[in-house]
Design goal:
CATH architecture: 2-Layer Sandwich
Helix content: 25-40%
Largest sheet: 2 strands, antiparallel
Order of helices and strands: HEEHH
Structural class: alpha+beta
Number of helices: 3
Number of domains: 1
CATH topology: Alpha-Beta Plaits
Number of strands: 2
CATH class: Alpha Beta
Distance between the termini: 28 Å
Low-confidence stretches: none
Length: about 70
């Protein structure tokens, strides 16, 4: 999913990070050029299919938080 996402014209970056004190957790940090670009990203088949595959592998549902750059 990450490899495909990085080729999207609207993707600025996508980083998978892990807290040093919690090796069982991870956070995906993503930045897109616009909300429309992110919405398009979420509609991509590799993303929708990948998220279905991840559902059973996650300890809890993903928490989506949208931020504005300042």
């Amino acid at each position: 999913m990450r490899r495909n996402t990085l080729t999207e014209p609207g993707c600025v970056f996508m980083h998978l990070v892990q807290p040093q004190d919690d090796p069982d957790s991870w956070v995906m940090l993503e930045m897109f050029r616009s909300r429309a670009a992110w919405d398009e990203h979420m509609r991509q088949p590799y993303n929708t299919e990948g998220n279905v595959l991840l559902e059973d592998r996650l300890r809890e549902p993903s928490e989506l938080r949208l931020f504005d750059e300042k």
